Each structure stands twice: as C-alpha cells, then as structure tokens.
Amino acid sequence: xxxxxxxxxxxxxxxxxxxxxxxxxxxxxxxxxxxxxxxxxxxxxxxxxxxxxxxxxxxxxxxxxxxxxxxxxxxxxxxxxxxxxxxxxxxxxxxxxxxxxxxxxxxxxxxxxxxxxxxxxxxxxxxxxxxxxxxxxxxxxxxxxxxxxxxxxxxxxxxxxxxxxxxxxxxxxxxxxxxxxxxxxxxxxxxxxxxxxxxxxxxxxxxxxxxxxxxxxxxxxxxxxxxxxxxxxxxxxxxxxxxxxxxxxxxxxxxxxxxxxxxxxxxxxxxxxxxxxxxxxxxxxxxxxxxxxxxxxxxxxxxxxxxxxxxxxxxxxxxxxxxxxxxxxxxxxxxxxxxxxxxxxxxxxxxxxxxxxxxxxxxxxxxxxxxxxxxxxxxxxxxxxxxxxxxxxxxxxxxxxxxxxxxxxxxxxxxxxxxxxxxxxxxxxxxxxxxxxxxxxxxxxxxxxxxxxxxxxxxxxxxxxxxxxxxxxxxxxxxxxxxxxxxxxxxxxxxxxxxxxxxxxxxxxxxxxxxxxxxxxxxxxxxxxxxxxxxxxxxxxxxxxxxxxxxxxxxxxxxxxxxxxxxxxxxxxxxxxxxxxxxxxxxxxxxxxxxxxxxxxxxxxxxxxxxxxxxxxxxxxxxxxxxxxxxxxxx
Amino acid sequence: xxxxxxxxxxxxxxxxxxxxxxxxxxxxxxxxxxxxxxxxxxxxxxxxxxxxxxxxxxxxxxxxxxxxxxxxxxxxxxxxxxxxxxxxxxxxxxxxxxxxxxxxxxxxxxxxxxxxxxxxxxxxxxxxxxxxxxxxxxxxxxxxxxxxxxxxxxxxxxxxxxxxxxxxxxxxxxxxxxxxxxxxxxxxxxxxxxxxxxxxxxxxxxxxxxxxxxxxxxxxxxxxxxxxxxxxxxxxxxxxxxxxxxxxxxxxxxxxxxxxxxxxxxxxxxxxxxxxxxxxxxxxxxxxxxxxxxxxxxxxxxxxxxxxxxxxxxxxxxxxxxxxxxxxxxxxxxxxxxxxxxxxxxxxxxxxxxxxxxxxxxxxxxxxxxxxxxxxxxxxxxxxxxxxxxxxxxxxxxxxxxxxxxxxxxxxxxxxxxxxxxxxxxxxxxxxxxxxxxxxxxxxxxxxxxxxxxxxxxxxxxxxxxxxxxxxxxxxxxxxxxxxxxxxxxxxxx
Lengths: 635, 494
Known about the structure:
The structure holds two protein chains of two kinds. By secondary structure, chain A is mainly α. Chain A has helices spanning about 5-20, 25-55, 90-115, 120-140, 145-160, 170-200, 205-210, 210-220, 230-245, 250-255, 260-270, 275-280, 285-290, 290-315, 320-340, 350-380, 395-410, 415-430, 430-455, 475-490, 510-535, 540-545, 550-555, 560-605, 615-635; strands at about 60, 60-65, 65-75, 80-90, 220-225, 225. A two-stranded antiparallel ribbon of chain A has the order 1-2. Chain A has a two-stranded antiparallel sheet with strand order 3-4. Chain A has a two-stranded antiparallel ribbon with strand order 5-6. In chain A, helix 3 (about 90-115) runs antiparallel to helix 20 (about 475-490) and helix 18 packs across helix 21. Chain B is mostly helical. Chain B has one domain. Chain B is about 75% helix and about 5% strand. Chain B has 20 helices and two strands. A two-stranded antiparallel ribbon of chain B has the order 1-2. In chain B, strand 1 (about 60-70) and strand 2 form a beta hairpin. Chain B is globular, with a radius of gyration of 21 Å. Chain B starts with 5 loop residues before the first helix and ends with a helix. At the A-B interface, strand 3, helix 5, helix 6 and helix 24 of A face helix 6, helix 11, helix 16, helix 17 and helix 18 of B.
C-alpha cells in the first residue's frame, strides 16, 4: 500500500509548483493543475480505502495497522527519534476519504466562487498546502509527526483565513486564529514532552498497543497530586481543544469566517477543526487505560461546549457565524462521545459514534458552508437581514441546503440522524446528565438551523434586491448536489463494521426508543423555528424580549472575546510586555549607562589635576616625593 | 600550507585585493570572488569532514596544524576543526557571502567599508578554527574592533552612542574573559608541569576544581555578553538598530555565535565540573533571556529593535541548551545557532532592503507592502514563519531538539525551566504576526510607498540563498545534526 505516499505527496508538489511558478500562469490553468492533483489523490484514497477495508487490512474480524512506510528523520536520543511515515488503520483511512472528498469539492467549487479574485493561483497553492498538511496529520505513525503537520495545518489555516490580506478584519482574524491555536499547541508540545519522557517513545503503535497501555498504568509518578500520565494526556487534549475550538479556545473559529467561504467549508467545518477529535481518538487507548479521569473532564468540556455554542448559534445574524457556532457545537458532540466511550466492542460505542458523526458531519457541514457561499455569492452579504425569499432565485442551493439542515437536525433518513443517534445512545448508557444536555442541544440545533434556513430562503418573501440574485454556476452547484447525495446515503453505512475501539467488527442497530425521542425534539425545534421565522412576523421579537438578558449575553457570545482581549491587551501587552520593555530600557540599560555616567562624572571631577601647567605638576611631584620619603623614613 | 588556514588567508588576500580598487565595480568583484571562494571552501570542508568521519577517523580535531609561535609562553598557532566548528564555519561563510550582496550599493567610502567588513570576517573565521586559547582570543578581538567603526561611520540613527556602547560592553566582557583565560592558563599544567593554551591539552590535564569554580563564571559571563545573556544584552538592540545592513547580518548572524561557541568550547568543555555545579544559576539567567527577550519584542516599534529582542530570546535559548549539558540539547543548541544565524541574517537583510526603499523602520508608518513588493514581503513572511519555529524550516528542528533534549533531564528544576522556555514559542508567534500584519498586510499607509520597486537581482541572490539554507536544514536536519552530534559525543564523555 505504499502508493498511499502519492496521496500525501501530490498536494505538496502541487503547492511547491503553484507557489513557485503559479503567479506566472493563467489563473484557470493554476486552478486546473491543483484540482487535477487532488483528483488523483482522491481516486487513490478511495482505492486505498476499498482495499484496506475489504481485503488488505481485514484479517478475520479485525483490522490491522499497516505501516507501508517509515523512516527516521531526526534522532534525538537512542529511543526518541522523529520518524516520518504512513500508518493506515481504520480511522486514518476514513479520514483520507473525508479529507480528499471535501477538499476536491472545495477545489471545484472555488472555480466559480473565487472567479476573478486577485491571487487565484495563490489560493489554489494554499489549498494544496492545506490538503497536504491535513493528510500528513491523519496518517502520522507517531505523535511528533502529528505535531509537525499540526503546525503546518495551523499555518495554512492562517494564510487562508488571511487570504484577503488587505482587509484589516481578515488579518486580525488570521492572527487570532494562529495565536490562539498556537497557545494550545504549546500545551500539546509539553504534553508530548512529558509523555515521551515517561514512555520513551513517540510511536502511536507502541503507545496505543495493549503493551503500551500497560506502560501507562505502570507509571506511578505523580506531579502535584495527579498522575503524570493524566497530566500528559490532559495537556495533549488541550492541544486538541485548541484546534477543535473547545471552550475556552473556541474564540478563533467564528472570526475565522473572514476567510473565503470555501475555505471555511474545508478547514473550519469538515477537516482541520476535527483534528482535536482525531487526536483524542488516536490516543484513545492511552486515555481509557492510563487516564480515565481526563476522559471524564473531556466529557464535561464537550457537553458544556455543545450547549454553549448551540445557544449562541440561536442568536447570531451572520449566516457564516451561525454555521461556525454550529460547527463548534457538533464537534463538541464528537468529543463528548469519545468521553463517554469505553473500550471493547459495544462498550466502545461512543468511540464509533464519534467517528461516525465526524464522517457524516464533514459532508453535511461542508454542504451547509458551500450553500451559504452560494447565497453570499448571490446577495453579496453575510447578514440574514439582507436575505429572504431566496428559494425562488436559488432552487438548487435551496434544496441542497434543506437536505443538510434536515441532516444536522437529526431527521431520518439523512446521515446526521444515524450518527447523532449513536452518540445519544452512548451518552444515555454512560451518563444521564450528559445525555440530557446533548438531547437539549439536539433540539436547539434543529431550531437554529431552521431559523437560518427560513431567514435565508423564506421569511421576507417580497424582499426587493438591487441586483436580482442568480443561481450559482455549475462549478458551484455540482459540488452541492454531490455532497447532498452523500448526505442522503452515508448514514446507511454500517459504521461499526469498520471502526471500533479495538478494531474488531461489531454490530449495532438503531435504538428506536432513543431515536424517537431525538426525532421528537428535532421536530419540536423545527416547529418552533417555523412558527417564528417562516413568515416575517413579530413572534421572534416577543420571544427575545422575554429572555432579554440571556439573549444579549448569547448575542455577545457570553463575552468570551472581551475576556480574551482583556487578557491579551491588558495583561500581556500592557501588563507584561510594556513593563518589560520599560525595565529593559530604564533599569537594565540604565544601569549600564549609569556606569558610563559615573565614569564621566569622576573624570570631570579629577580633570583639574591635568591642568597642563608645569608649576602644578612640579608642585605635585614635590609633594608626592615628600610623602613617599616621609613614609619610608617613618614607617 | 594547511587547508584550514585558507579561511584566514583568503580574507587577508581580499583585504590586499581591495587596496588597488578604483571604483565600486572592482570592489564588488573582489568581494564577490573572495566570499564565493570562502563559501566554496566551507562547503568543501563539510564534505571533507564527512568523508573523514565516514572513513573512520575518530580524532577529536581534524585537519590540525600546529606551529609554535611564541615559545616562552607556549603559545602556538594551532588550528583544527570538529563538527561544531565546521558548522559554524559554514554559517559564517554563508553570511559573509550574502552580506556582500546585501551591501551591494553601500555608499560612501565603499572600499573602507568592505575592508573593515572583511577584517571582521577574518577574525570570525580565525576564531572558529583556533584550538589555541591565545590565538582564539586574538581573533576574537580582531572581530570586535571593526564593529565599532562599521557602526560608528556607516550606521544610522544615534550611531556613535550605539557603537560606543556596543564596543565598551563587549570589551568589558572580554576583560572578564581574559582574566578567565589566564586563570585557565595558569591552572592548565595538570601533572605535566608546563602551562599550555591548547584546548585539547587543557581538557586532558584537567583544571583543579577550586580554580574552575572561580574561572568558569568569568569565562561564561565573558562570552555570554556576546551571546546576549540577560542582563548583559542591552548592547544588542541599540547596536543592531544603528548598524548598516551587512553589519547587522554579520553581527547577529555570526558574531553573537562566537559567544555561544566560546561558552561551550572554553567554559564548559574545559571546566565541566564547575559547569555542573553552577549551571543552575546561569540557567535562570538564560531562561529569563528567552522569555524576557520575547516579551520585550512584543511592544517594540522599530523593525530592528524587534529583531534584536528576538535575537536575545533565540540566543538565550542557545546558552540555555548548552547549560543542559546533555548531548541532545547541546546538538540542538548548535543547530539553533546555525538556524538563528541564517534567520536573523535574512531578517536583517530584508529589513535593510525595506528600509532602503521606505526610509523608515517604524512599523506604524508602513502597511500593505505585500502588494507593492511581493518578493520581499513573501520572503519576510517566510523569515517570520521560520523564526516562530514552523516545521519545514530550521527553527523548528533546532527548537524541538532543545526542548526534547532539555526535558530528558532527570532533575525537576531543569524540566520546569524547559517548560518555561517552551512558552516562548507562543510569544514569538505574537510578535512576528504583529509585525507581519502591520507592515505587509492591510492597506497602504503611505501614498509614496506605492511607487516603490521590488527586489533587484543581487538582493534576490542574498535572500534566496538564505531561504534555501533555512529550508534545507528544515527538511534534512539529520545532515547537520549528525555532524554536530559526532563531535559532541567525544566532548561530553566526562
């Protein structure tokens, strides 16, 4: 299976090629070259997935971990060395499919969306860089390679968010995204240091094999009353939380919507933001055996984030921001599912459900973003207030968007229903509080998604547009249709036969008692949204007026941005950096200058002795001689 | 004539070659030819070195040459290289080569400028090939003095003040160091009965622990001043800000490395026991440098000041890693020296080029340069990303080597300090992105900037050479780390 190298290497070559000579090409040619490269990667990863899941990887009922390539890149010590290589196991193969598919759709879609934009070649070069980094991340056979690609993903996200670099808000957003995630990465790095110090390896195979988990249990060292393995895994999770926008690191994601919409679909909905989920899934055996206490923390962080983001999503008026908060909420679902999971066939339902939701979410959320992009393309605005009644003008976008909304709300037979149902079942079996929290979120999800849907496509039916909105060109609608088709079918994949904690096939069925509950809450949410937003009426104003305090707080995203700005501006810049700079100039350097001042002062004081008058010198000479002689004589 | 002495001889020949030059064109020709030869020599040296090691030559110093110079005091002209010095020589020749291109249009007094610059280079090359403490000290001073004139005459801003400050502080450092070196000399006899300046012999004879306790801090601080160790770093921001482009490049790129190299070769290798005992104190100082420099850089408004503080932080990391006294961290330290040298030279070159166009280095007066000078701006972004330790560039491998190596220390104190030093990677990102966002992105601040032109061919040579080196190390770090590591195993086997 060494051809999997091509899947990863090709986007990188495309990046180099487009980055170096792309500027001299015609935009369309550059786009075509990038897309061609990605088509090859996509086809190869489908082939890889097919052969892995149905022949090469499966021995009996168990999936093997295949390492088709691995070489030592940089040696630290005898035990610790960074290897670069490829590791194929069910989750990494699944991720290959997700990433290449969504990325390809975005490549095609961007032909229409980015048409005529300045820097079209650069855009495709960066898309290739991102695809490369993300693919490298998921196939990493060791945690350090993952960290390397983790950073590369971060920088490609930075450069794509800041694609419109003349726009100050985009520059600020890209900076924020990079620094916040970098801050979280610091913890990831420290976590790697701690873990590798105790385990003596970076390799996932050694860490997550049964023997490796035994190591995790055998370490008894503690630091400040908590086992060092727990520390390491907690730190690593913080790294993941940064990329996956968990509380309190979520603040960068809504701002990241300043980037081009297809970028949001690819990076900030389907792939990069789930890196944290993937990380926890990758290290799952260590969590469950070495640090179950951390897993509990993860559960609660996930559940809180899910609720928190869903509440905010109900109040936002920028359609991309609604989707951003929805993404945060859905990723929190996945994280929570991992948290409530156990190990073993049915015990590990949460793990499977999490990966399943990752899979289905990638497609329907990309679809939502691309649909939102088509809407923005048509009306040239992100604000709901400037939309309404668009179903007449954008029929294809309307239908595909509706499918995605139904899917994310958890209405059968769309894919979101199946994966969300599994998560709810897993949560129900493990932790009732978390279950009801997620259950309430499911209702909120249905509500805010249909609020979005109605306000774009229904609402003010007689809205007058300055330019009549047009349906997007084929390059944009084809990806929409394709993703909508996927959304309709992928739910029927028997996911537990491919992905499980111990890589062994098991069977699940739909738990209709919980499924009917979840359909009920989804329908309720949709019904409320219909009542409030289907036609332009005052009911929504009445509702917001009745919960004014909560509404205002949610509208301002519970003031997290303000807190972060306070921390960075007031504490880091004004509280630390300014005093440090002042201290350096006035105290440290002042001390150095003081020495020269003293020297100057003293020399000025004694310079009268060098008067240049021969009488003075003779006088001093005489006196000196007298003193010395008298000393010699009398002592 | 032995091979290594060519590194000193070629610059001297260049100095002679400058004398008859009549115009800038001839001066450039001499400078380009000479620096290309130097670059070629150092590449050849790297190849020869790898060849020798591959052939199984395990001698500590290779290509040695020894001649008695001043018999009364047992001073030799003694040269030789190990992996560490090979890498440093390579770095120096790259920086000199690119420095020549970066000062292509240096006016006025071009001839004098280049002569001083090359004299400085002579000192640097001589320092790295010396195995004799006395010659080492001699070359060290040769490298320092030209700096005064280069900044004082060709500098900008308050250049006299900066030149004076830099020279006095470094001289103060070398005074301490000189005491240390003489202390080493008079304790170098061991059981042989003769004093020696030869590094290898001293290391063999061993210095009594009582003497080590006194002279270790003297030499470490002495060299540490040049390595911008807190609180002796304040020469660096002023000095760099006032210096002309090529001088900044050479100074931050190479001269500051003399400090780290000296700390290792003289202080630590000769006095390992004292290093073990006292490392905690200097770890605190260098740990402060790392974080303090980074915070200091966050609020500066002058591009060169930002970079100077960034250098304090990065060079602090070098000394920090050396003091960890283990192989991985030390390898990381030398890779960091190499990487910082290249990155900071690239930064200063770019800043010089931008300054040459906009006539300002104040980040508040610039904006939107990306659209006006795409080549320089993209290069600046690359330099920034390398500086904040992005994988694929040299900064990442060296920093990771340092962090992983330092964290292997069994002592909790060292590990906690490693975590503190790690935090600099976030602060670095803050100040780098702040600058990039302000000057390259956004709208154009000054209407006059719209007419500016992008890089010329000679500027592109300098920039591209440095970028290629930085990414080369970033992609194939083992190539460098193997050269360094091979030498360290021998040296750290105390």
